[in-house]
Amino acid sequence: MCVSSSAKCHPRHFCPMVVVSCTPKGACRLAELNSTVSKLELATFSIIPYHARPSKSVPVTVALV
C-alpha cells in the first residue's frame, strides 16, 4: 500500500473483482464477479491479489471442549 496520504492510495473497492485487461503503462480494467465491467482503470500497484487456498481439507485430530 502507499505510504503517502494522497486520496488515490486509499482503498475503494471491497468486493472481489477480476482483472479484464491491462495496458502497457500499468493500468488495469476490472470487472465484478457478476460480469459488470468498471469504467475506471486502476493502477497495478493498488490491486491486491487474491490467492485461493488449496481444496485439501485438514483433518481434525483433537476436539477442543
- What percent of residues are in strands? 25-35%
Indicate the low-confidence ranges by residue numbers. Answer: none
What is the radius of gyration computed over CA atoms, rounded to a whole number of angstroms?
Answer: 17 Å
Instruction: Characterize the biggest β-sheet.
Output: 3 strands, antiparallel
Percent helix, as a range, is under 10%
Q: Which geometry do the CA atoms define?
A: elongated
Order of the strands making up the biggest sheet: 1-2-3
Instruction: Report the end-to-end length measured between terminal Cα atoms.
Output: 40 Å
Class per helix and strand makeup: mainly beta
Count every helix, treating DSSP H or I runs of 4 or more residues as helices: 0
Secondary-structure element string = EEE
| Number of strand elements | 3
- How would you describe the oligomerization state of the chains in this entry? single chain
Give the rounded overall mean pLDDT.
77
